[in-house]
């Protein structure tokens, strides 16, 4: 298997995940300002609620493909870990085609129509008097769907590789779970004969 396509998809989704990760800082700043304005100044804002759900929704949608690229979504690890890598890959492959792709393709297709309608009517929020435009926000739905489909293809290629070779291909690395760091540290110290 040529890992270039897989790494290319991983790289794009990593970049997007990190770029949209800045939404959390904007969300924190907006919420903090709203609390200050409401309780200290006695002058609540008209825009904070809209800003909060738009920023959180954008972050949530655009982090999905990044999390999948990092193998960070929740699964029944206590069973899954006991399987051989090839068994894990076979299970993942079946589950991608049974559940992942049907759901994500539907999200993309319905999201496309949803966003197109929103753009056609120049939709505005009805939740607050400020009524900000929300059609750019609704465009995030098909974009996130497309990125998840691409990452799903990368994951299927990983499964095929693992089934053929008996081990998982490498992933791009930028963050690691503390548990993995400790396992590596323990195995290195154990191999050197040092006490943990």
Automatic annotation (TrEMBL):
Classification via Pfam families: DctQ
Keyword Transmembrane applies: yes
Location(s), subcellular: Cell inner membrane
Presence of keyword Transmembrane helix: yes
Bilayer topology: Multi-pass membrane protein
Record domain Tripartite ATP-independent periplasmic transporters DctQ component: where: 28-159
Any GO CC annotation of this UniProt entry: plasma membrane
Membrane spanning stretches: 20-41, 53-72, 93-112, 132-154
Main localization, broad class: membrane
Sample GO molecular function, one term: transmembrane transporter activity
Sorted UniProt keywords: Cell inner membrane, Cell membrane, Membrane, Transmembrane, Transmembrane helix, Transport
Task of the protein: Part of the tripartite ATP-independent periplasmic (TRAP) transport system.
PANTHER family listed in its UniProt record: 2,3-DIKETO-L-GULONATE TRAP TRANSPORTER SMALL PERMEASE PROTEIN YIAM, SLL1102 PROTEIN
Family (UniProt): Belongs to the TRAP transporter small permease family.
Subunit-structure text: The complex comprises the extracytoplasmic solute receptor protein and the two transmembrane proteins.
Protein name: TRAP transporter small permease protein
Native source species: Ferrovibrio terrae
Lineage, opening ranks: Bacteria, Pseudomonadati, Pseudomonadota, Alphaproteobacteria, Rhodospirillales
């Amino acid at each position: 298997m040529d890992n270039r396509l897989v790494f290319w998809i991983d790289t794009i989704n990593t970049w997007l995940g990190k770029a949209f990760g800045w939404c959390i800082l904007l969300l924190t700043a907006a919420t903090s300002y709203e609390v200050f304005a409401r309780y200290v100044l006695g002058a609540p804002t008209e825009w904070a609620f809209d800003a909060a759900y738009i920023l959180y929704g954008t972050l949530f949608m655009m982090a999905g493909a990044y999390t999948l690229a990092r193998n960070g979504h929740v699964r029944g690890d206590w069973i899954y870990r006991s399987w051989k890598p090839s068994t894990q890959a076979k299970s993942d492959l079946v589950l991608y085609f049974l559940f992942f792709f049907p759901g994500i393709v539907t999200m993309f297709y319905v999201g496309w129509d949803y966003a197109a309608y929103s753009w056609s009517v120049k939709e505005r929020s009805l939740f607050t008097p400020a009524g900000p435009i929300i059609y750019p926000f609704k465009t995030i739905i098909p974009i996130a769907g497309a990125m998840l489909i691409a990452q799903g293809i990368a994951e299927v290629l990983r499964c095929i590789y693992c089934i053929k070779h008996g081990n998982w291909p490498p992933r791009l690395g930028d963050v690691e779970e503390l548990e993995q760091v400790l396992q590596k540290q323990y195995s290195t110290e154990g191999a050197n004969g040092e006490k943990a």
